[in-house]
Amino acid sequence: QVQVVESGGGLVQAGGSLRLSCTASGLTFDDYAMAWFRQAPGKEREGVSCINWKGGSTYYSDSVRGRFTISRDNTKNTLYLQMDSLKPEDTAMYYCATDKGSASAYCSDYWPYLPQWRYWGQGTQVTVSS
Q: Which residue ranges in the chain fall short of pLDDT 50?
């Protein structure tokens, strides 16, 4: 049984930083690309960042590029999202996802397409105050 668990969310002032973590069990962690998504109230879930199985390639949405950094530690089965220069518009529930089916070790340009991701965590709330 695959389990994906996010942690590290919280309340932070604009301009501050947070680091999210995501652990995945029940699968061979380093076989799969991993991704972060977020969903703000009243909005659709959107892709934030993706990292391939070895961590050599990373992808970011335009809204977070240059402020967020995705990384992974395959020895700890853990995915990270370092979020700096946070803005109120970054307020959302943040989700971790893994196993996007075909070519599952790699993100590809289509990584933000939600239905392809098989396993999701329950999310961790990030709130940025102005």
A: none
